[in-house]
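Check this.
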Amino acid sequence: MSKAYNETVALSQSGALAALRAAVEKAQEMGVPQCIFIVDPSGETIASLRMDGAKYLSMHTARAKARTAASIRNATGSMTPEFAVAAGIASNGGVTNLPGGLPIRFGGKLAGAIGVGSGTGDQDIEVGRAALAAIEADPI
């Protein structure tokens, strides 16, 4: 029997675009251009954008943040340093402990994750939270 922990719901393309739009608006308000990735529960990309002026290498980290948050079903940034290094090496950089990855949940069920990169960790989280609020996802 599967546990409720494994239950997922789908994030529609309109929901992903609304989250992306809200993230961009928040980043613009903050004056911090960002790279933003939204993924489904399996870590596959639904929507992404590199804002004008965002660091181009942050596309990789934003995607890794989103995929990691979906995989661990939790926000990034709380792994032990030893585990974070090992996971990063084992996944060829596909897993990261950098802050800015947030799971997207509705009613406790995983719908995907958002990864934001190019600002400070706190800025990335703030942009991600604005995206979650716009689609009325469970708050992080």
Observations:
- The beta strands are 35-39, 45-50, 101-106, 109-117.
